[in-house]
Amino acid sequence: GSGPGYAWQASGSGHEICISIPIDDDITARQLEIDLRTFSLNCKVKGKLIVEGKLWSEIIMDESSWDLGSKDGQSFLLLYLAKLKRSQRWDALLKGKPAVIEG
Which Pfam families does the entry mention (predicted)? Predict the structure, then answer.
């Protein structure tokens, strides 16, 4: 699925949700504000809100993380959310957003 400024999908095992946010090459970790909670996500890049809201379902905080990466010359902020209910399919990344079945 996707939203304005990001894309998301389930990992191969389905136990994790992966969010990709395209960023400029010169972005550093200090320019990121990432607030991961059990039920919510708030992510800003250089002060600009990219993703905010209540998650579709609970995540495991200790097993969730983020990283910076690149693919085909594009830099990305990558968020990895470990699902509490591992076998549950997410219809959307955030509650109240249009449903897009994870794939």
Answer: CS (PF04969)
